[in-house]
From TrEMBL:
It comes from the Bacteria. Residues 40-134 form the Methyltransferase domain. Gene3D superfamilies: Vaccinia Virus protein VP39. InterPro entries: Methyltransf_25, Pre_MeTrfase_YjhP, SAM-dependent_MTases_sf. It comes from Salmonella enterica subsp. salamae serovar 18:z10:z6. This is Class I SAM-dependent methyltransferase. GO terms for biological process: methylation. Keywords: Methyltransferase, Transferase. PANTHER family: METHYLTRANSFERASE (PTHR43464), SAM-DEPENDENT METHYLTRANSFERASE (PTHR43464:SF3). It holds the Pfam family Methyltransf_25. One of its GO terms (molecular function) is methyltransferase activity.
Length: 248
């Protein structure tokens, strides 16, 4: 049970697997007015940075679920490093369809809405894990500018223009689903740079150490095209944000 290997190679040195920086996560935690003892479920928790730093800074507790063995191990190591392993726990499991044994104050999926077929399905999954009146956190890309053609969407690395919405339509969609948007924090271009550009050094070093690996050609191809794709398309067309929702 794992994600495609290209991701665990290219993002093996990442603390966060999305365009949020440590400062953005701190801003989000402060904006949500986290209190000690708040219980959080994080589906697609990656290397655990959100849960671990919020446990350190705000005294929250919680559970992270991720399909990647590598990222789950890194999350556990991060919890030990920050001295919060008694408060946050990480499970190697498929987050798709995950229903916990308890209900949470906050249920989050920050950048992995593919686990339930998109935004609506992920919100429905998170709601099943949530206490009445609890907060759902959804991290999702949006179009800063809508690609004029499907070819441009493909150049951005997605299958279709319809894969994402512009920001006003995304916020309106939350409303249509019956949720109040009570907070949001948006990534900035520098955060995108850190998320994308950090992969390039990791891939280059990996290729130097693993020239005969069966994945080497795929990594070489990605390293060749990724910088151009980022500065030409992704950086200009994509935004990304985390949205806090409470059901009406």
């Amino acid at each position: 049970m794992d994600i495609p290997r290209i991701f665990t190679i290219s993002e093996s040195e990442h603390r966060t697997h999305n365009p949020f920086t440590a400062e953005k996560y701190a801003t989000l935690g402060h904006a949500l007015r986290m209190k000690p003892g708040t219980r959080i479920l994080d589906l697609g928790s990656g290397s655990g940075e959100m849960l671990c730093t919020w446990a350190r800074d705000y005294g929250v507790t919680g559970t992270g679920v991720d399909i990647s063995p590598l990222f789950t191990t890194q999350a556990k190591q991060r919890a030990e490093e920050l001295g919060v392993s008694e408060y946050v726990h990480f499970i190697h499991n498929d987050a798709a369809g995950y229903i916990g044994e308890e209900k949470y104050d906050v249920a989050a999926c920050v950048g992995a809405t593919w686990i339930a077929g998109g935004v609506a399905g992920t919100i429905d999954l998170l709601a099943k894990n949530l206490k009445p009146g609890g907060i759902i956190l959804i991290g999702e890309p949006y179009w800063r500018q809508i690609p004029a053609t499907e070819a441009i969407a493909h150049a951005c690395g997605v299958s279709s223009v319809a894969d994402f919405r512009p920001l006003p339509e995304l916020v309106a969609f939350f409303d249509q689903l019956g949720y109040d948007v009570v907070e949001m924090v948006l990534a900035d271009p520098q955060g995108w740079d850190r998320y994308e550009a950090a992969k390039w050094m990791t891939m280059r070093r990996w290729l130097e150490e693993n020239p005969d690996d069966e994945c080497a050609q795929e990594v070489r191809t990605e390293l060749t095209v990724a910088p151009k794709r980022h500065v030409t398309w992704t950086r200009e067309y994509f935004g990304w944000g985390v949205f806090a929702l409470i059901a009406r």
